[in-house]
Design brief:
With 668 residues, the chain is of the alpha/beta class. It contains 15 helices and 33 strands. The chain has a 7-stranded parallel sheet with strand order 11-12-10-14-16-17-18, with helices on both faces. A 4-stranded antiparallel sheet has the order 3-4-2-5. A 4-stranded mixed sheet has the order 25-31-30-27, with no helix packed on it. The longest helix is centred in the C-terminal third of the chain and has 22 residues.
Amino acid sequence: MNKFLYIAVLLLAVSCSGDFNQPLEPTEAPYVEGEILVKFSTDVAEMIDVAAAEGTSVTRSGDIDVDGVLKAIGTCSVERVFPMDAATEAQTVESGLNLWYVVRFDRSKCSTADVARRFAALGKVQVVDVNRNIKRAYTGKATPLSKSRLEQAQTTRATVSDPLLAAQWNLINNGDQFIKDGVVKSVKDADVQCAAAWERTTGDSSVVVAVLDEGIFIDHPDLKANIWVNEDEIDDNNTDADNNGYKGDIHGYNFVHNSGHIVSNNALDSGHGTHVAGVIAAVNNNGEGISSIAGGNGGADSGVKIMVCQIFSGNTATSILSTVRAIKYAADNGAVVLQCSWGYISPKANAYDWGESYFNTKDEWIAGSPLEREAIEYFTHYAGSANGAIEGGIAVFAGGNESAPAAGFPGAADEYISVAATAADFTPAVYTNYGPGTTISAPGGDQDYYFEYVDQDHRYGEVGCILSTLPYHVAESGYGYMEGTSMACPHVSGVVALGISYATQLRRHFKASELQKLLVDTAVPIDSYMTGKKSYCRYVADIGPIQPMQMNLSDFRGQMGAGQINAEAFLAAIADGAGAEMVFPNIYIALGGSVAVNPARYFVGGDSLTYTVTASDSSLVEITAADGKIVFCGLKSGSTKATIKASNGKSFDFTVTVRRGANDNGWL
């Protein structure tokens, strides 16, 4: 089998106001020259790791054939793609991601394509991949909400703590927001059904969503409380206190600049990452700006957390290397939802407007982007916990904005979720991809459809679009509008996070695939709205309403995935006996070491209960309580049965094992 098949450019599948059909053509080489990504055999990888452990720059592998190629191409360095993290190394080895290396070489001696062919011919090389450049597919910025409009909303709020919620038809749609001259372009409940879902849960702080996007404005007053904090790190970009391979990763990591410093104020940034984060987890009930899907209720420990995985910055092209590192980082550091408003051009996109598609089928994508595929599979398999609400992770992708009858990859692969975009009346947004590969639909905004509603108080790029948070350099008010499948995508990520929060609250355990199926099965059918024609004005934000067009809605019947996402139905299905009861885990302790466990995580209403723990062999383990946790200290090697009983009468039996070299995940 050919180990080197495709060289491709990744375009971010987003749509900001006024530019959703204006792709950004790549201005650089499609891949990074002077670098190649190689998956070596186990024995070669072990030799490279031994050399790296000696603290010197590695330029040779110890294998005669591999070293022959390394010498010929003028190798500068051989480095693991994924840095060593002792806490997750066992699963990294199990997945095979430890075998991937980036080889840097003298680009004046050989081209990347030539080096790829040389490595692909070696028996000790499993797979070869290029480090593709990744460019965003948009150039514009959001449409800002004026500061005066924000101030007006602040003064007129009556019963809602978040003053801009009334403008968020995507969250609560009463069917009365887009009516003019007897024409109605809104349908009651053509939203994500937040209001009813919030009666069950508003989001749990133990649930983490990794946002792979531009940098997020982490100090935004409507976001700050819901930004993930790495408690094991310290605020120093020059140290790696938690030894996970990333220095200073307090709130995530900037994979563009290889730094713990998140950048959201580059003059060329659109604010996209901040906007996405706001849809998912802007702080609810805090008297500030907007509401969000899973932003909590304003109280402590409510609201899911946003992990910042920055893969774009300004106009700088990022790469596959940065993206796959971000994906694995998310899984290894506690994220259970991967929010990805990016993807390859649809295989059915108009080549004149968008260029040629690189991957027409799932098999082509797997063969042509092997490292990316393995990284996403790592997330979906290893994120979460066998003892928590979700085992595995859920990856959510934007379906694409090329008006094409097929979703783009990676999201189009059936293991993941690919999201199409709708307007406020359940009709497809005029730019959305649809058809094969589409999993589900969600509100994404549709400015070209709502052009008639622009007046002296509103602008193109605003009416009918999605309102969310923005950095101040993009919008003085800190809020503004965007649209696209990249806006539909975080609606799904937010609902998934809300569902995991509810499972946590109910102490129910799910495989990621089980939750994903529930999400699809509870979608609202929308085919009944696919009749007649939909009129719109293309490029209205750029040229005004002078290019009227129509789309046949019948073309979309059965093509928008399972239907529109429904948070309330999803949560109801979780409550209706789905999944399995969460159980207290078996404990593994190193001899002379200790493990602390929060028992409240495993009992419904656990924070209000007290606990008694007994072990059959008390000479093997010492059990104490401290700061609301149960601490197990290993006294001698062996195993013993144990029981934990809560004050409400509920109990679990489990096993405590003490052994040299153990940690809380098993044996090292």
